[in-house]
Amino acid sequence: MITESPENVLFVVMDTVRKDRLTPYGYDRPTTPNLSAFAEEATVFEQAVAPAPWTLPVHASLFTGMYPSRHGADQENPYLEGATTLAETLSTAGYDTACYSSNAWITPYTHLTDGFDDQDNFFEVMPGEFLSGPLARAWKTMNDNEALRTVADKLVSLGNTAHEYFAGGGSADSKTPAVIDRTKSFIRDADRSFAFINLMDAHLPYHPPEEFAEEFAPGVDSTEVCQNSKEYNSGARDIDDDEWEDIRGLYDAEIAHIDDQLGRLFDWLKAEGRWDDTMVVVCADHGELHGEHDLYGHEFCLYDPLVNVPLMVKHPALDADRRTDQVELLDLYHTVLDTLDVEGGTPASPGEDAVGLDRTRSLVSDSYRAFDGLADAERDPGQRGDGEYAFVEYSRPVVELNQLEEKAADAGITLPNDSRFYSRMRAARRTDAKYVRIDRIDDEAYRLDEDAGETENVAGGDDPLIESTDRMLSEFESAVGGAWTDALDDDVSDDAVDEMDDDAQERLRDLGYLE
């Protein structure tokens, strides 16, 4: 533990924000002046790696200190259970905890908010009683019934899908100021606090406030560009260069809106005298693709624009500098425990899995990434080799597959079963190389130091860095139960909907899932 440590933590996740669209990371458009000012006080990490390319498993890892294959939260099992969360541990230790978000995956419904003393999801299309009432309890029962698993997958995605179809310019952006206001109110009334916020503006669809749209996407009508990634990925819709430019402009405008609101929060913390005694973490859970590798969104791959995410941390033990060594978002769990002097590791309920503080994973510890000194019994699956490797896991996204198949079918397109759309993937990454194991198509490997755009697949060659990265991935896979070599069933249909009770079917009908 460091000798001088803040008593408060503000943890900000900018959902779906690419590193290369932020001014502190060299972007030539002034999207983030407030984050640029923040970067002058913080450590800016160039090589931070997310444990997955989408929200649910990443946040479950942030809240448990576990890789996705251990905590088990993904779209085929879309809730966190059997694991003690960071919020539960901190609340038990006497910290005030709060979680504010407009992301449908971060709700009582998925149990990601378990342990937070206060939480709000800021949904305008999903009432809170739906997320935490009788349907939430029924949802767990459905997940325990294999025949109804696809129904549960649909239920948990209602908020994000409703956001996609119903969010307009005003409603889409009205949530972030409310999140900031609620966070200020919580911090004002708290003693020792852990505040976690997720800001959704940069997630599709992009309908930025007018002032930011005028600066970064002048003349672009957000209702006229493609806002449904599944239409493009399925082949049902093409996007030309001009439209991509418009999409990226809208995306930049959304990021600028996030930056503006973070500046408001940071200025308030300083005015209230809370800034110096607060560790501030700003990161993205994953990025986004805008046509690279012929993909749109953040599904179906593990390319760097998705998993090499922005991360900036302000802490008295960290220099205001840039770091090029590789770190993992998983390490932030231990960094928070270390900062607040909480050992953790005690299950909140009997039989739960609880991860205790490991200072070899704390960014503020002198022993960070000193994995070589650990006995095998002390290692987690990712503590391989000399600490230069990060690991990413991606289980098939069944909710997105349903939408992808529907778009393809409407356009008369048949998606090949042996394709990335149906694949599970795992990757080992170092700063100069990456190896991706894929269960339905050929593996991919890239020399990131020579091919940052990941355009030349060098898997199967004789490059020693690629070979060592492949070996480390095999070691990781062995530690988590073996490689994914058994391709999953192709069927992602929703036949089980017929087995739902009338009330559940009516709720789906109200939200546009059933005719």
TrEMBL record:
Pfam families, alphabetized: Sulfatase
InterPro entries linked: Alkaline_phosphatase_core_sf, Sulfatase, Sulfatase_N
Gene Ontology MF terms in the entry: hydrolase activity
Domain Sulfatase N-terminal, residue spans: 8-342
CDD domains: sulfatase_like
Keywords, in A-Z order: Hydrolase
Family: Belongs to the sulfatase family.
Protein name, entry field: Sulfatase
Species: Halobellus rarus
